[in-house]
Specification:
The protein contains three helices and twelve strands. It has 183 residues and is an alpha+beta fold. The longest helix has 33 residues, at 2-34. Keywords: Membrane, Transmembrane, Transmembrane helix.
């Protein structure tokens, strides 16, 4: 009788181990297939860690919002409601510590500072993972093209649905960074 209990326990654990990753994959695919697409303008970075792995570190121009509220402190999780500006790039509509149930897409970000009525935050999609052999060249191309913002159009394509976000691609002058590196 004990063997049957062990077997049933094993089957339950195995099913859980299969179900959890499948659910995570399904959620990401759902956001990609039915989420709203936003273009987030990036800005240049000065990398300091040579061992950052096989991804590109991204920083965004949209990383703050002017709002006279001193209750936002570093480390707070906030709802960043977004909309498109006239040029088609994402911009902040409003911030809140709680879900306002607005008819707007939102992401959950983390407050990095609050000074002089400006609340700074970090968006949750700041790494773009790539094929191992292309990651260094992609990081280099991203940095070089982002330094000269007047001539280059560099942005991240992000799908957003119900607070979930998936970074789909990084675009340099209308070309996917994966294809840009191959040139």
């Amino acid at each position: 009788m004990k063997i049957i209990h062990v077997f049933i326990g094993f089957v339950i654990v195995a099913l859980i181990q299969i179900f959890v990753p499948l659910q995570m994959i399904w959620q990401q695919e759902d956001v990609l297939s039915s989420g709203e697409v936003y273009k987030f303008k990036t800005r240049p970075i000065d990398p300091t860690d040579p061992f950052r792995g096989k991804y590109i570190t991204l920083q965004y121009e949209m990383n703050s919002f002017t709002m006279a509220d001193t209750t936002y402190i570093q480390g707070d999780k906030i709802f960043v409601y977004i909309e498109n500006d006239d040029a088609g790039y994402a911009k902040v509509h409003s911030l809140s510590k709680t879900d306002l149930r607005l008819d707007k897409d939102y992401v959950i970000a983390k407050v990095t500072g609050n000074h002089k009525d400006v609340i700074n935050f970090k968006l949750p999609f700041d790494r773009f993972y790539m094929e191992e052999t292309k990651a260094y060249d992609a990081e280099k191309a991203y940095r070089e093209n982002n330094r000269n913002n007047t001539q280059n159009d560099v942005y991240a394509l992000v799908h957003i649905k119900e607070g979930k976000s998936v970074l789909k691609d990084v675009i340099i002058n209308g070309i996917s960074i994966q294809k840009f590196v191959e040139k």
